[in-house]
Design a protein that fits this description.
Strand order of the largest sheet: 1-2-3-4-8-7-6-5
Radius of gyration: 21 Å
Length: 163
C-alpha cells in the first residue's frame, strides 16, 4: 500500500510538472506582452530566459531613442504575468533647484496610483543634484519613483508585482 501511495504521489507530481511545462509561454509571447507596456516608438533590444528562486521568467528589454529611455519588463514564463517593470531615462538627472514639495512628489505617484500608500518620501542629493525618492505600495505591487524636484519628471520607475 505504501509503495502504491508513493507511486501515485510521484505520478501526480510528474503530471503537475508536465502541465506547467505545457502552459509556459514562449520568448516571442513574452516580448509581445512586454511591448504593450512601453511606447510604440521603443526598439526591442533582447529577450532572455532567466530564473529567480526557482521561478523562470523572461527578461525583456526595450530602448526608446526619442526619449533615451531604457525599459526592462520581467514576464513569468508560466503565466505571462508581469513580475517586474522598470524604466530609466538615461540622460535625466536631478536638479540644483528644489521647487516641488514632498506632497507634490506624492501627487506625481498618485496620478498613476490613486490608492498608493507611501512608505518613504525623501529628498536626496546625488552628485550635488537633488531628487525625490518615493516608495509606495498599491494594490498588488510595490513601487519606487525617482522624481526631479524642479520639474516633476519621473526619471526612474520600478514596480514589483505581488502574486
Amino acid at each position: 500500500m505504501k509503495k502504491m501511495s508513493t507511486a501515485l504521489v510521484a505520478g501526480l507530481a510528474t503530471l503537475a510538472f508536465s502541465a506547467t511545462a505545457f502552459a509556459a509561454i514562449s520568448a516571442e509571447e513574452a516580448k509581445a506582452i512586454a511591448a504593450k507596456e512601453v511606447p510604440a516608438s521603443s526598439t526591442h533590444i533582447v529577450t532572455k530566459a532567466d530564473r529567480d528562486n526557482f521561478t523562470p521568467y523572461f527578461e525583456v528589454k526595450f530602448y526608446d531613442n526619442a526619449t533615451n529611455t531604457e525599459y526592462e519588463i520581467d514576464v513569468l514564463q508560466s503565466t505571462g504575468a508581469i513580475k517586474e517593470y522598470s524604466m530609466d531615462i538615461k540622460p535625466m538627472m536631478g536638479s540644483h533647484k528644489v521647487v516641488l514639495s514632498a506632497d507634490d512628489a506624492k501627487n506625481v505617484v498618485l496620478k498613476d496610483y490613486p490608492q498608493a500608500t507611501f512608505t518613504k518620501v525623501k529628498l536626496d542629493s546625488d552628485d550635488g543634484l537633488y531628487e525625490y525618492e518615493v516608495k509606495f505600495t498599491a494594490a498588488g505591487l510595490r513601487g519606487s519613483y525617482t522624481i526631479n524636484p524642479e520639474t516633476g519628471v519621473v526619471f526612474e520607475k520600478e514596480l514589483k508585482y505581488q502574486f
